[in-house]
Design goal:
By secondary structure, the chain is α/β, with parallel strands linked by helices. The protein has helices at about 15-30, 35, 45-50, 80-90, 115-125, 145-150, 170, 175-190, 205-220, 245-260, 275-280, and strands at about 30-35, 55, 60, 70, 95-100, 130-135, 155-160, 195-200, 225-230, 265. Helix content is about 35%, strand content about 15%. The chain has an eight-stranded mixed β-sheet with strand order 1-2-5-6-7-8-9-10. Bound molecules: iron/sulfur cluster. Iron/sulfur cluster (SF4) binds near residues 40, 51, 52 and 274.
Length: about 280
């Protein structure tokens, strides 16, 4: 069990005009965000920058990852109006870079791929210049899911590895490290997509294991990587094994770049979608 949360992970209380505006807009349009569902510590900062990461296909996930704050259970049917509502919110927020993610929908025949694609198309119709980043699940048993998603031509295809392969059974039991790597590779090989992935550290990984993940990502043509500290959402979740000091995050960034990743954003409070516009345009 890790020690008490260190100062570098403390954030200011949420508030401010933009924060309130964004929260009200999301509520008005009946939209979910991963910012709220995952209880993200950056909410104050991101909402005040008038950005948020939309969580589509409902607030209930089919899988039971031990690090995640999103509810697990039987998800509800898809809401056909949701893609347009996401587009409307993006337009009202005047976003130049939208990040859309979802819960894992292993219950749907296409894993939710068509809903992702429709969301991209609706956003593009309202905001043709906007960059669109999709952060998708692994679409477990659906061979065509990636093709359906990529037909809508998102600008960035993001899929998180989250942790080192040894810890998958403990951290994300429904997932498979090699399946995730293959998905990223296929997005690059077949669709020439800009691909991105994310890791959380402090769950018990060893330094050498991380280095191997950097090498695997580079070998699978991933060009953008985010690395941040894992924070346990509650005492029932996977406990934090270690709080990684800020300087070590800088070392990770250097090592990942040395391995061949082009853009690496590594700091304690970095999340997969944190400052996604800045990371992309670096
Ligand atoms: S880092 Fe991502 S999930 Fe967290 S508040 Fe910002 S946009 Fe939302």
């Amino acid at each position: 069990m890790a020690e008490r949360k260190p100062d570098w992970l403390k954030v200011k209380a949420f508030g401010g005009n933009n924060f309130n505006d964004v929260s009200a807009l999301l509520k008005d349009l009946g939209l979910n965000t991963v910012c709220q569902a995952a209880n993200c510590p950056n909410r104050g900062e991101c909402f005040n920058r008038r950005t948020a990461t939309f969580l589509i296909m409902g607030p209930v996930c089919c899988r039971n990852c031990r690090f995640c704050n999103i509810d697990t259970g039987r998800p509800e049917p898809l809401n056909d109006e949701e893609p347009e509502r996401v587009a409307l919110a993006a337009e009202r927020l005047k976003l130049r870079h939208v990040v859309v993610t979802s819960v894992t929908r292993d219950d749907l025949p296409d894993g939710g791929a068509a809903h992702f694609a429709e969301t991209v198309r609706r956003i593009r119709r309202r905001l043709p210049e906007c960059k669109i980043e999709l952060l998708t699940p692994d679409f477990r048993d659906v061979p065509d899911a990636l093709d359906i998603v990529m037909a809508a031509e998102p600008d960035i295809f993001n899929h998180n590895l989250e942790t080192v392969p040894r810890l998958y059974p403990k951290v994300r039991p429904g997932a498979d490290y090699n399946r995730s790597l293959k998905l990223l590779k296929r997005a690059y090989d077949k669709f020439k997509a800009v691909t991105k992935s994310g890791l959380m550290v402090g769950v018990g990984e060893e330094r050498d294991e991380l280095r191997q993940v950097f090498a695997d990502l580079a070998e699978h043509h991933v060009s953008i990587l985010t690395i941040g500290q894992y924070l346990a959402p509650s005492p029932k979740h996977l406990p934090v094994a270690r709080f990684v000091p800020p300087d070590e995050f800088k070392e990770y960034a250097d090592e990942a770049k040395k391995a061949g990743l082009k853009k690496v954003f590594s700091a304690p409070l970095v999340r997969s979608s944190y400052m996604a516009d800045v990371v992309f345009s670096q």
